Amino acid sequence: MSLSIISAWKPEHQNRSRPKTAHLDVAEFFCDTIQGENFVGWPAAFLRLQFCTMDCVWCDTNEVWRYGNPYTFDELFKFMDMASLPEKLHKGQHLVLTGGSPLNQQDRLIKFIDAFIHTYGFKPYIEVENECTISPLPAFIKHVDLWNNSPKLDNSGNLRIVRYQPNILMELSKLENSWFKFVISDPLTRNLSPSCCSNRVIDKDIGFIISKWRHGMGRMEKKFSRCACRKLS
Ligand code: SF4
After folding, report:
1. 6: CA distance to ligand 1 center in Å?
2. pLDDT digits (tens, 9 = 90+) for 179-216
3. Which of 48, 56, 105 has most ligand 1 atoms within 8 Å of its beta carbon, as the pocket-test mutant?
4. Ligand 1 center from residue 51 Cα (angstroms)
């Protein structure tokens, strides 16, 4: 069973004033759960950051990331200590930075990870859930062990000009430790090719998450090799 570190909507944490010291805007934080993609079943802690660059029609966490509070690094370390999370991370539990949009706060995340390393003497294995609309900073890239990229298609309801950033997709595609997944709503995935996979913007293995299927909310994950447009067009 997962262990809550910062609960979503926790009443006593509402309306906190913005600290003057280093902090993160956090929506919720929990550990002792398992990763559901790529490292499926691996022990993981999820630090969900507040705010997102997208507003997907099928988002299943928007009621969480819209709310949150600023927590100083010292407060976060205190809560992590109470959950014995540093020890768990040292033993191999992954720290998954999710959102919302983690890269919205990447400059502060760099400092947070540096402060964690300084305090605890090691760097945890860090995964990032990424909607691929913000260019990653080199110092942040250095800290990330796995990029779980999820560019949004037109079925997300977001404007193309906001969701489709080919230069950023190409940049992420070049990272050895990155992979891509898409939420699709049609078995032929015809709507993939024009937006994300044309011109070989993404040229690596792609995992497809099929959700909101016509028979319900069941999920199916399938691996394709190399560029999706070659396999699916
Ligand atoms: S990018 Fe992710 S968190 Fe943001 S609105 Fe879309 S599904 Fe929700």
Report:
1. 20
2. 988 887 665 554 454 445 545 667 666 666 655 544 44
3. 56
4. 9
Q: Is the pLDDT of residue 38 over 90?
A: no
pTM over 0.90: no
- Secondary structure of the chain in the HEC alphabet? CCEEEECCCCHHHCCCCCCCCCEEEEEEEEEEEECCCCCCCCEEEEEEECCCCCCCCCCCCHHHHCCCEEEEHHHHHHHHHHCCHHHHHHCCCEEEEECCCHHHHHHHHHHHHHHHHHHHCCCCCEEEEECCCCCCCHHHHHHCCEEEECCCCHHHCCCHHHHCCHHHHHHHHCCCCEEEEEEECCCCCCCHHHHHHHHHCCCCCEEEEECCCCCCCCCEEEEECCCHHHHHC
Residue 118: inside a domain: yes
Residues 85-129 pLDDT 10s: 999 999 999 999 999 999 999 999 999 999 999 999 999 999 999
Query: 199 lies in a domain?
Result: no
> Atom of ligand 1 at shortest distance to CA of 100?
3
pLDDT > 50? residue 231 = no
Among 62, 66, 67, 97, the mutation site with the greatest number of ligand 1 atoms within 8 A of its Cβ is 62
Protein residue closest via CA to atom 3 of ligand 1 = 100
Number of domains in the chain: 1
Instruction: Say if 139 falls within a structural domain.
Output: yes
Range of the domain at 14: 3-149
